[in-house]
C-alpha cells in the first residue's frame, strides 16, 4: 500500500498548500495551488502545456502583468509565450502584460542567435589555438534539451578549459575583443586554490558575457569530476548547424542537477531543463545516470532535481533513477517551500543566506570526503580577496580570506 503523510505546511502568503509525501516521492496534485498566476506559469512552461490546469488557473483570475514579470524573472518567457499559444485561452485584445511577454520573448530570441554565433566564434578561436573546450548551459542546452535555442534564455556563455590551458585561453578571449570584468583576478586563473574557479569577460559592444571556468562548479566539490578527462570525452551538439562540444548526456544531466541544487533551484528555467531531459531519457540512459551519480556521490541532487520536476512540472521519472532519502526530502522541502511561497523573491539568488547555503551544500553529497572539501572551499580566496590582495602570495590571500570569514561568516568566496 502506498504510504501518504502530510509533512508541514507551506505558507505562500495568500493561501496555504500542503506538502505531501507519497511513497518515495512527493506530490501537490489535487491540492490548492498557492497562486493562480504562478500556477499558470507552471502549467505552460513545459514541453507540453497542461491545458486543463492552465485554463483552470486563467478562470481563477490571472494577473497578466505579474505573469509576464514572473516569466521574465524565472527566465521562461519563451516557454510561457509558446505554452500560452498552445493553450489558446488568453484574454482577447491587447493586454500590457501579454505585450510585455511578447517583447521579452522576441528579445530572448535575438539574443540567443547572437550568443550562438559568439559561442561558435569563441570555440573556433580556442580550438585554433590548440585549446580543448566544453560549453555548458546557454544555447547549447537550448539545442540539446529543446531543439530550439530560442526557447531557452541564455544569460552568458560558459566555457570550460583545462587548468593548464586557462591562462592561454585568457589571451585568446582578449584577442577576440573580450575584456575582463575584474582584471586583478586574472593572475589567479587556472589556480587550484581560488574559488570560484572562473573569470568573467564582457564584450561591451555586443553586450555578451563570457565565463571562463577551469573547474566544474563552485565549489568544485559539489560536482567531483575532473575536467581534463571530460574534454577527451566531449560530444558534439549541433547549434545552428555548427557542432559545439559539450559533456556526454549522463554527465551533462548530472551537471544540471548539481548546478540547480547548488543555487537552491531559484530559477524555474533550470527545472524546465530537467523536465525536458527526463522526457528524452530512456531506461538505459536512466541506469547510466544513476550509476554515475552513485560513483560521484551526488545521488541526492539527482533525486531532488527529478522529483521537483515531477511534482511541479509533471515530468515522468524513468525507472532506475533514485528515490528520495530523508536528507534529499529535507533538501527538496527547503527548495519547494520558498518557491511556492514567494516566486518573485525566490527568483533571485539572495533568497538563501550564507549559513543555509553551507548547510544545503553539506547535505548534497553522501561522501564525507566531499563534505570536507565543501568546507575547505570556504577557506579558498575569492574574487574580492584576489582583487584586494593583487600580487600577494597564495598564503597571504588565504589569510585575507580567513579574516573575512571570521568577520562576515561563511559568505560565498566570490563575494
What does this structure look like?
- The protein is α+β, with helices and mostly antiparallel strands.
- It has a domain at 115-247: Beta Polymerase, domain 2 (2-Layer Sandwich).
- Helices cover 52% and strands 11% of the residues.
- The chain contains 18 helices and 10 strands.
- The chain has helices spanning 36-44, 51-60, 64-73, 77-87, 96-128, 138-146, 166-175, 227-232, 249-262, 268-280, 283-296, 299-313, 326-341, 343-346, 354-364, 368-378, 383-388, 394-408, and strands at residues 4-10, 17-22, 25-27, 134-136, 157-160, 179-180, 198-203, 208-213, 235-239, 242-246.
- The chain has a 5-stranded mixed β-sheet with strand order 4-5-8-7-6, covered by helices on one side. A 3-stranded antiparallel β-sheet has the order 1-2-3. Strands 9-10 form a two-stranded antiparallel ribbon.
- β1 and β2 form a beta hairpin.
- α1 (36-44) packs across α3, α12 (299-313) crosses α13 and α15 runs antiparallel to α16.
- The longest helix is centred in the N-terminal third of the chain and has 33 residues, at 96-128.
- The protein is globular.
- 46% of the residues are buried.
- The model is unreliable at 1-23 (pLDDT under 50).
